[in-house]
Amino acid sequence: MATNANTRGQSIEKVVVVGGGTAGWMAAAALVTLLPNAFELTLIESESIGIVGVGEATLPHIRAFNERLGIDEAEFMAATRGTFKLGIEFADWGAIGESYIHPFGTFGHGGSDVNFHQYWLRLKQASVAVPDLDRMSMGVMVARENRFALPDRDPASIASTFGYAYQFDATLYAPYLRARAEQRGATRLEGRIVAVERHPEDGDIRAVILEDGTRVEGDLFIDCSGFRSLLLGETLAEPFEDWSHWLPCDRAVAVPCRTSGEITPYTSAIAMPAGWRWRIPLQHRTGNGYVYSSTHLSDEAARDALLAAIEGAPIAEPRMLRFKAGRRRHSWARNCIGIGLASGFLEPLESTSIYLVQAGITALIELFPDRRDSKIDRDEFNRLIDMEYDRIRDFLILHYHATTRTDSAFWDHVRTMTIPDTLAEKLDLFRRRGRVVKYREGVFLDASWVAVYLGQGIIPAGHDLRADAPPAGAVVRAIDTLADEITARVAAMPGHAAFIARHCAMRDAA
Ligand SMILES: Cc1cc2nc3c(=O)[nH]c(=O)nc-3n(C[C@H](O)[C@H](O)[C@H](O)COP(=O)(O)OP(=O)(O)OC[C@H]3O[C@@H](n4cnc5c(N)ncnc54)[C@H](O)[C@@H]3O)c2cc1C
Fold first, then answer.
1. 300-324 per-position pLDDT tens digit
2. Closest ligand 1 atom, residue 20 Cα
3. Which DSSP symbol is given to 330?
4. Is the CB of 321 under 6 A from ligand 1?
5. 265: Cβ below 6 Å to ligand 1?
6. Is 173 in the pocket of ligand 1 (CB under 6 A)?
7. Residues with Cβ < 8 Å from 332, sequence gap 6 or more?
8. CATH class of the domain defined by 2-82+168-241+325-390
């Protein structure tokens, strides 16, 4: 292979993606589609190593990602055996026996500078009888009724106030994207990387060497090598910030089973004595897993508890996975950008990993460097990605910390642990007057925080004084009208399974 004559100041002509899991193929497909003809792109993956292959639940942002790549939703859903997801049901988190849904969408129907839940709080605090806040969320009510229809595009319609994401077979998404990426010019190389070569003068990565001796040079390397973090972690020794003192779950056991209940349009996260369990219904099966702390539970006990809890017969052997919560100090170091598990991991409680992959790819495309040494782009990328990780971390910790559970050593630990100052401040503000700290950037918006705060039993002492402006009777009437309107709209929607059968049924059985 010819020697690349680029110096650090010259343009990026060769991009090498290391890894062909969800992160690698998402990155490759997006780069060749959105920056066409800008560089040569080679992706290296090793079938003998394989991919993580779990990761079935997503956030609504994935729709924008797919749209930008020109992916047809119905075709994609059929190919990945996907179902629709309106939010996440959390059972037994604040207290055993309680459950709530974190919906994608709003409570109420906009139109005011004051958050809707403030009006509701005002009435509750005055002991006025009002319906549950859930009844004022279209997303929650559609999910609870196991129905689905696409949201209305007209913002004046109450049916525009919910969003949706997908639940899909994680082993099918990467191959689906691979076909598109290869069509648009990405080159795939099969083989195990056994060595990494660095530029002697500046330490940047120059090439990777495969087991058969093939040498692949690049100007920019995208590390999508999974938990191993082959380039960012192993080669460049970018330190790992360990967050397991806040997020002690470090293992998962996963097993798919036959579906015997509803194909729910939501993911379930059911709290367990040493962690939590997911249930993700797909068209052809249901995905299950128990995410747990190995300090508090043995692998064998976790496996047994999962097998005892699932709804149908298992259709594969349970798989054990190990991980550590945290992230690399920087996701972009030298001429290497870590995306996916290579840059960090936060447990799948709020389905954020594929979102983080997408955030990394979007930031990279926006800041794509014009030279190997591009500090200003690198710093901005790292600021954006660090912020995404930090905010998601706080949101996850909230689920564990805001609990009254005292039934196990695990819950005693997370209930009483010291939390990050950034989260403590947010919690104080909500406790005082229901205020949600607003973000200009980042993933979870006000309604998500409100759902989890209230769902886990954090009840504000007061409310925003602006919510006192309208007469109480008018607020009660508006709330009742809204709840009735939502009930009527939901009742007119098709069932989730019927909607899938009509719009995006998979073509063949598993
Ligand atoms: C228990 C669990 C549950 C999860 N649930 C969700 C969820 O519900 N939602 C969600 O968004 N995310 C979830 N995730 C995360 C999600 O699975 C990952 O973010 C996603 O699959 C991306 O993984 P990846 O591509 O970074 O890594 P991997 O899938 O591990 O891919 C790594 C790639 O690197 C290649 N590779 C590694 N070393 C070499 C080498 N030496 N030479 C050549 N190739 C190499 C491998 O062959 C592979 O192609 C979950 C993760 C876990 C552990």
1. 999 999 999 999 999 999 999 999 9
2. 49
3. -
4. yes
5. no
6. no
7. 338, 378, 381, 382, 385
8. alpha beta
